[in-house]
Amino acid sequence: MASKGLLSFTRSFNTLRAFNASTKDPLVQCLAPRLSRSMATEAPLPSNMSEAEHGYNSFSMPEDPNPSSTVITTIYSFPDMEPLRFEYYNDKHLHLPLRRDILHRAVVFEGDMTRQGTASTKTRHEVHGSHRKIRPQKGTGMARLGTKQSPMLRGGGKSFGPHPRDFATQLPRKIYDLAWRTALSYRYRKGQLIVCEDGMDFEHPEGEWATEVFEHNNWGKADGRSLIVTADKRENLFEALGKAPQNGRAITTWDVDVKDLLETGRVVIEKSALDDILREHQSDLIGKVRNAQ
Question: Where is this region: Disordered (predicted)?
């Protein structure tokens, strides 16, 4: 009886170990079963569906150069969103822990940089007109007054009014670059970072075409508007989304910032654009650099 119990326990343990190994397979974790589900690497597939049902047999996993420090990402075609291949990225680029404090500092820093600071008022010395005394100091029975530029009078100067200024604040470059990669990692962990092949564009610059593409991919209003990031401006894509802003907006890598990566429902980005962002914002990994501003 003891030997039978031991044999049963051994079989159960081997079955459990095989199940855990299958669920940790990076191929199973990489592709989403349907376009309505999250399409990033972090979103796992249902365990009751086989790889053959999703058409994964045509994919071959590339050799991971360093399994302990890389994460895998699927590259899709646009706009049909068919999976093409796998790519590996450093875990310090797309798998950082969430740091709300760093993200907050980066968003405030970007907001301060965008403030115009052009508000301007005139002091009593800058208001046009004569500076003679309005009326005699005594004998009129009224209050004492100086010139008509006095802040107490209508049309006079402004005391302590705003003047043109620079609202920009300081933020270390390394912290700002870390915020960029933290925002991308946040999207990656939630399954909302969709990496596409270069050259994303629509066939027609019509808003209806963009709406049909978004509906086909189940990128609806329930998930929020989407952010399309391209390396260069795509005429049809930008014009179509400009006519249908309810679907999302398209910007280039020169215009995107940390706030853009956080405020939309998902981020659909070209591989070259993602590589450019990661290459530009890795100062904390390569050595000493100057401040962001």
Answer: 41-65, 116-158
